[in-house]
Predict the structure.
Amino acid sequence: RTKELRKEIMLRMRELDERKQREWERQSVETKPYRYQKMSFWLKRLLARSDIEELMNRKIVSVGDRLKTVMRDFWHGTVVQSFKGPDGKSFFSSTQEGRYTFSLNVDGFNPQGSSHSGRSASVTAMYMVCLELPPSLRYKIQNVYLVAIIP
């Protein structure tokens, strides 16, 4: 009796596995390789450009900036100025290591323009900029890291 029961269980498990496999194949979507540039490679290339590392390592926040009531840059905010590192000091105080801050931006758009027929397509771009760069240089195409394009 035990042999028959074991055989029946194995048969049902095989049928269940086959059903699961068929369901998986029915639901699966064709995938294509996603090519991207690693951020570490992009950052190395950015820092290798002349004067960029010096610009990124400059002292950004001065005492006078802390007294401003009008904020013109990310660095004028009190939250970022009071952000502490593991040593309890300001995370952005001068150190021997590069400490960089990035802004992640996500923007979706219709690549075919606005459609009156109700049909629409969507493409989403994700990109990052280094906030240590001066505002005049941050968004120049050569300084922007394209994280992903999602069709």
User: Anything to note?
Assistant: The chain has three domains: 1-29, 32-57+98-151, 60-93. The mean pLDDT is 83. Helices lie at 2-27, 39-48, 52-56, 63-66, 78-81, 135-138. Residues 1-29 form one domain.
